[in-house]
Design a protein that fits this description.
Number of helices of chain B: 7
Strand order of the largest sheet of chain A: 1-5-4-3-2
Number of domains of chain A: 1
Distance between the termini of chain A: 54 Å
Order of helices and strands of chain A: HHEHEEEEHH
Largest sheet of chain B: 6 strands, antiparallel
Structural class of chain B: alpha+beta
Number of helices of chain A: 5
Order of helices and strands of chain B: HEHHEHEEEEHHH
Radius of gyration of chain B: 20 Å
Oligomer: heterodimer
Helix content of chain A: 40-55%
Distance between the termini of chain B: 70 Å
Number of strands of chain A: 5
Number of strands of chain B: 6
Shape of chain A: globular
Structural class of chain A: alpha+beta
Chain lengths: 171, 192
């Protein structure tokens, strides 16, 4: 085997390793946020059945390339402070994630957090919504056109995307 | 000992100059520091915090199509903007924020370049709206809106070239509340 071929193989292996690490990091942070919700509020997320996941791939909301979803249903989210959770979330996510939107309502116990991160010519958007009895963690990869529409009306878009994702995930 | 005192004084002077330079640079960039009002979140019944920085705005704008009419319109609307930042607090009771909180923002808007463009006070509901613009080379380089009422405190900061006409097109989207400032600033309205 020539030196050139060995170098090519080594380069390919290195590229493969990089892409795997990037993929792991992307899933890693989503998983870390799901874990954070679990540990912070002492709750457990609901896994999606295989059929529902297949359904989600087909019924993807407009402009959304891929998404990961974790839902927490009928559990108690009133125990801990809202600002403490936001601080913990910022500590969990690396600096690439930028906070886009933060809504906290003490009256109805509702919290919505949206973070964005560049992913090549796409964007990753992480949406976390917490209500008194339910919560959702959603990470989507969106085209810039979809992100702009999101930014035009961040509060409404976040809610409708969560609704679409949770509805399409129901078996 | 004298040498130590001299060195300390020089270092103190340098630090002061650096701090002043940073403050001037911040004022010129058009971005207003809002961490001084973050503590209001703990007293507010509802908090909204929106951060759209230059990278996010310009990267998404750059990737928008010129062919699509709607995308081209949005691209034109946000082109050149370096940031849109909104902080809004709603309280259950009056007097949940102090004059010092308003002053934490207002004091930065007295920096060179900034000037108060519009002030509206409503005796009826106690609402105050103050609009400030940052001028650089005879062009608007930033805009700040301070809106406070007995149970509400909202601050909007748009960094980049923005005038009232452009603001009126942004109002109601990108997290910017609808102040209807174009109507408010027309002479007919003011004379009403």
């Amino acid at each position: 085997m020539s030196t050139k071929t060995v170098l090519k193989i080594l380069l390919l292996l290195a590229l493969l390793q990089i892409s795997r690490s990037v993929g792991a990091a992307q899933t890693g942070e989503y998983n870390a946020i799901v874990k954070l919700v679990e540990n912070f509020y002492h709750v457990k997320h609901k896994g999606l059945p295989l059929l529902a996941r297949a359904g989600m791939r087909i019924a993807r909301p407009n402009g959304v390339k891929s998404f990961k979803l974790a839902t927490f249903e009928n559990q108690d989210f009133s125990a801990a402070g809202q600002s403490d959770f936001y601080a913990a979330m910022k500590m969990t996510l690396n600096a690439e994630w930028r906070p886009l939107l933060q809504i906290r309502s003490r009256q109805d116990g509702q919290q919505t957090y949206v973070f964005t991160r560049e992913a090549g010519d796409q964007f990753n958007v992480l949406v976390v919504t917490i209500e008194r009895r339910d919560a959702t963690v959603l990470q989507v990869e969106v085209a810039p056109q979809a992100l702009i529409r999101w930014m035009q009306n961040p509060e409404q878009m976040s809610r409708s995307l969560i609704d679409e994702a949770t509805n399409s995930s129901e078996p | 000992m004298k040498f130590l005192e001299d060195s300390t004084m020089k270092l103190f002077g340098l630090a002061l100059l650096l701090a002043l330079a940073c403050a001037t640079a911040s004022a010129q960039s058009g971005r207003i520091e809002t961490s001084g009002i973050d503590h209001l979140a703990s007293r507010a019944s509802e908090t909204v915090d929106i951060n759209m920085d230059e990278r996010l705005l310009q990267m998404s704008a750059r990737l928008l199509s010129n062919q699509d009419q709607d995308e081209a319109r949005i691209r034109e609307l946000i082109s050149g903007l370096k940031g849109i930042y909104v902080k809004s607090f709603t309280f259950d009771n009056e007097n949940e924020y102090a004059e010092a909180d308003v002053e934490a923002i207002r004091s930065q808007l007295r920096a060179p370049g900034w000037s108060r463009f519009l002030g509206i006070h409503s005796r009826h509901d106690g609402e105050n709206v103050e609009v400030y613009v940052l001028m650089e080379n005879n062009q608007i380089a930033g805009l700040a809106i301070l809106d406070f009422a007995p149970k509400e405190f909202t601050f909007v900061n748009i960094v980049g070239p923005i005038d009232l006409e452009r603001l009126s097109r942004i109002e109601g989207q990108f997290g910017v509340p609808d102040f209807d400032l174009v109507r408010e600033s027309t002479p007919t309205r003011r004379n009403e």
